[in-house]
Amino acid sequence: MSRDQASNTATAYSTGGRFLADLTRRVAIATESQNPARRPDCWRYVREMKEDFAQLGFAGEILDNPDASGGPLLIARRHEADDLPTLLVYGHGDVVAGMEGAWSNGRDPWRVDVEGDRIYGRGTADNKGQHTIVMLALEAVLATRGALGFNTVALIETSEETGSAGLHRICTEHRAKLQADWLIASDGPRLARDRVTLDGGTRGTVDFDLVCDLRAGAHHSGNWGGLIANPAVILANAIASLVSATGRINVRGILPADIPPGVRAALGRIELEADNGGPALDPWWGEPGLTQSERVFGWTALEVLAMTAGTPQQPINAIPPRASARLQIRYTVDSDPASFMPTIRAYLDGNGFGNVAVVPKSTELDWGATRLDPEHPLMRWAAASVRKTTGIEPTILPNAGGSLPNDCFADILGIPTVWVPHSYSGCSQHAPDEHLLKPLVTEGLAVMAGLFWDLGADGGPDRYRV
């Protein structure tokens, strides 16, 4: 009975076919949460996951979503002793649209297809493959030691791809069932494929629309061009007033005052590089005076996601009556999201754009920003465990650049969180040809088995408390 045995058992699930067998079953369930017709598949998924967790000694409960737009959730608990600490693990069973017909080589998104080191299928990277790794690592520790050495709560939702509808309410109303000492979960990509990443939190998101709506209908551009205002031109200039041609955010009131010294020190050890399959980085873009790691992990981003005016698919010789754009703010815990919309409204008014409306999305589905100090006992312990497994120092991010519903766990449940992703930036999640890399699956199984073994064997994060 040893840590190495648990790790070997876990990695054998990858090389021996068990991981692929479990993942194949899960990918075959077309859990498209953005497609209401797939809601029965989301129910099927949590029912099957309840049975799978039962094989590990978990008692499961399926909850209907309190938000009508959301899918069901599963809470499963394994209780070993009243005096043991509790770990919360999380995953989401829903996926984005399968995009059938757009995958290369005629691949079916609902069938796992292995080619070389790539494991293709919708949800392989986001997130079915990742929570399958977590479950098999728990199983490996149980098979080796006969017990985990801690209590465990598993939360599986099916609405993450639509903003985790209802999850805030679930965590509030079922706080007692979900209460834990720590969260260790897996989602998102590593920063670099050859080194384990530990994310302490995530940036938050606020989406909003800018709308310039001037009149009831379009008017012939030959007769009216130069005589009536063009909402598309006004909107383009309004956006340009918010963000410069080099990506500097001009509306400074939505930015943090500074990057905290501890965060800056952690980010100073990270040098970003473009991964294979990803776009080249643009060092001239973004906030001047910041490193690229500071721009994406320690600062605010204001991005334009979509713009429309007229009929782009079939342009006509007419001045459009209306133009709109969807914008998104990604922010860290150093900014107050409640101030964003008033600040942008005041800035546009001050720059002569009173005819551009600021329309926030419903704040119910927004994910708040979270961060874990790199010196927190949980992060220091997790880094030591990963180092023991891989022999390599992990990359530590106080928060990832992307977003997850981590505020539900860090803020509502009040527990420290560490995310251990097992994908990489070129995995094509949310696109055709989504895939996992087999070497990252094998290493991920070993890393998670090591974390879970250590959590029940060495005193866990408490031994790193000052």
Précis, in short:
The chain has helices at 3-15, 18-27, 39-54, 128-145, 167-173, 175-178, 221-224, 231-242, 261-267, 292-297, 340-350, 377-390, 407-412, 438-455, and strands at 59-63, 73-78, 86-92, 113-115, 118-120, 151-157, 182-185, 197-199, 204-213, 219-220, 301-309, 318-319, 322-331, 357-360, 395-397, 417-419, 435-437. With 466 residues, it is α/β, with parallel strands linked by helices. It has a 6-stranded mixed β-sheet, covered by helices on one side.
Instruction: Write out the CATH superfamily name of the largest domain.
Output: Zn peptidases
Main sheet properties: 6 strands, mixed
Given as residue ranges, the uncertain stretches (5+ residues, pLDDT < 50) are: none
Shape, principal axes of CA atoms: globular
State the name of the first-level CATH class of the largest domain.
Alpha Beta
Count of strand segments: 17
Helix-strand category: alpha/beta
Mean pLDDT: 95
Examine the coordinates and then state which fold CATH places here, giving the name of the CATH topology of the largest domain.
Answer: Aminopeptidase
Instruction: Estimate percent helicity.
Output: 25-40%
Topology:
Layout (H helix, E strand, L loop, with lengths): L2 H13 L2 H10 L11 H16 L4 E5 L9 E6 L7 E7 L20 E3 L2 E3 L7 H18 L5 E7 L9 H7 L1 H4 L3 E4 L11 E3 L4 E10 L5 E2 H4 L6 H12 L18 H7 L24 H6 L3 E9 L8 E2 L2 E10 L8 H11 L6 E4 L16 H14 L4 E3 L9 H6 L4 E3 L15 E3 H18 L11
Parallel strand pairs: 3-6, 3-7, 7-16, 8-15
Antiparallel strand pairs: 1-2, 2-6, 4-5, 5-17, 9-13, 9-14, 10-12, 11-13
Helix pairs in contact: 1-4, 1-14, 2-4, 4-14, 12-14
